[in-house]
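lol forgot to send this yesterday, sorry. struct tokens for the thing we talked abt
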């Protein structure tokens, strides 16, 4: 009986397969068009990837439902959706970590505070953001090695994005002998730093004596620099110490 039914429905089966193939290419075409024209206006590549994948899967699902209709499997469609709900619940309970990573990836993709090529620092790693996927975020460290951080772990913890602000203030500490002219030291350090590091409007070089050490009076000076990545802080600190 099944063989007879399959033979009778052979034209419908062929048509359903053609519909699935057709919708696959339609989904690919629309995905490429969106990437080229509409999504190109979106600055974050991660958001482009998320939207294009959602559109691609949605069009495939439409083709799948139409193919089931051609095969007169409407009742089966209801059963499939009901079964998918039960299976989805079971998978969700079994893969809580994976789902939290996926949700974290969606959250990260739409966060304006983190973008591709930003230099960020977390509790465990720091580097340039090279990829934000549905599972993890990839950082290229200054030593050119890559760190893969699960999205859920990244979203739950704080991070520093050095690329959001062009100007940052750094601190350099030092000590001088007890016999030194304190006012002369303050004037000298403030003048030298101001001459070598341009301070913009609302910025200034700050100087503070902080404590009496065992063999020195310690002080700190704070000043502003252009800094979009960690290396620029090291360079400025190196120059200030010299």
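and heres what i got for the seq, position by position
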């Amino acid at each position: 009986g099944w063989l007879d039914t399959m033979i009778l429905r052979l034209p419908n089966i062929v048509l359903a397969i053609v519909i699935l193939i057709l919708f696959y290419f339609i989904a690919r075409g629309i995905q490429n068009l969106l990437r080229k024209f509409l999504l190109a206006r979106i600055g974050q590549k991660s958001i482009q990837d998320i939207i294009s994948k959602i559109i691609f899967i949605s069009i495939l699902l439409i083709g799948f439902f139409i193919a089931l209709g051609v095969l007169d499997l409407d009742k089966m469609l209801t059963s499939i959706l009901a079964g998918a709900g039960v299976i989805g619940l079971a998978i969700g309970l079994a893969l809580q970590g994976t789902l939290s990573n996926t949700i974290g990836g969606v959250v990260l993709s739409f966060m304006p505070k983190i973008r591709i090529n930003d230099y960020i620092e977390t509790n465990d790693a720091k580097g340039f953001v090279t990829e934000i996927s549905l599972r993890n975020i990839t950082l290229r460290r200054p030593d050119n090695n890559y760190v893969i951080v699960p999205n859920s772990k990244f979203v739950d913890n704080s991070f520093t994005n050095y690329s959001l602000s062009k100007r940052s203030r750094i601190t350099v500490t030092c000590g001088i002998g007890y016999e030194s002219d304190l006012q002369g030291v303050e004037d000298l350090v403030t003048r030298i730093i101001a001459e070598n590091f341009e301070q913009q409007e609302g910025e200034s070089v700050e100087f503070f004596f902080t404590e009496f050490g065992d063999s020195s009076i310690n002080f700190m000076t704070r000043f502003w620099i252009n800094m979009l990545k960690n290396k620029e802080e090291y360079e400025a600190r190196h120059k200030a110490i010299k």
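The chain has a mean pLDDT of 80. anyway ping me if u want another try
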